[in-house]
Amino acid sequence: MELKRRPRRLRANETIRSMVRENHVRVEDLIYPMFVMPGEKKKVEISSMPGVYDFSLDEFVIELRKVVELGIPSVLLFGIPENKDSVGSGAYHEHGIVQEATRLAKKHFPELYVITDVCLCEYTDHGHCGLIDNGQILNDPTLDLLAQTALSQARAGADMVAPSDMMDGRVGAIREVLDKEGFSHIPIMAYSAKFASGFYGPFREAAGSTPQFGDRRTYQMDPPNGNEAMRETALDVEEGADIIIVKPALSYGDIIYRTKERFGLPVAAYNVSGEYAMVKAAAANGWIDEKRIVTEALVSMKRAGADLLITYHAMDVARWLREGGQV
To answer: Does the predicted model carry a pTM greater than 0.90?
Structure first.
């Protein structure tokens, strides 16, 4: 039998494989999540996330230089405050930890694109993303605090704000306040498809944000629900979201695909802490090839439709790209 179609012709060597490769990870795709805390000369490795640290502000600036030198265009900032209270006041204080980190980042590296997380969970003594009354998470009273958080971050120099709380109406509340106060140019990257996932555990260690009672299932989405993710995203788009986050990423490629196909906005896949931790643990035990696995996972997110990759692997990926030219 004469074979006219031989797909293997285009797999014969790395040169031709790279020429016809359909999806790539570029350094321009990367957003690097970073954790900042008060104090000086502190760089504390997160035990469940090898290679990821809580940084005091002075160490944060040192690390940012490495980020910039590797060509990573953007960071996403999370804060660990010195004190917590029931209303998360550190989130929207003019001199809160994220606000101060933002000022430093823009002072030393003005071209670095600084995105700030908008939520209360790292700042509340109960660990929830909203105000509490009799054990209930209050939606509407929380919106003003979220809006004030976003406004304080914009005033500090943030290039973009990213509400992660999952309160109903928070994108609209933030957009209204930013526009009213002269920040209509600041985009909102909304955690629109954010699921109540088991993959978040290491992040809660890093940010000290584990709920002190209950869980977050009354505001984060139930993992089996894809149609609900589309409804949530539609609401955020209507309220003014500019970029949509799907979180987690690795087990939610279908949601990434559906989000991109339906809404056409830029989509950011959040390669979350538990996904990172699993790869690191397996690699440390010699069970997997870390570079190969990370590359495959991130490319799968791009193939599903993601435009941007929020990943704790960003520094490693940027180094691999510099060394090898493509991932």
So the answer is: yes
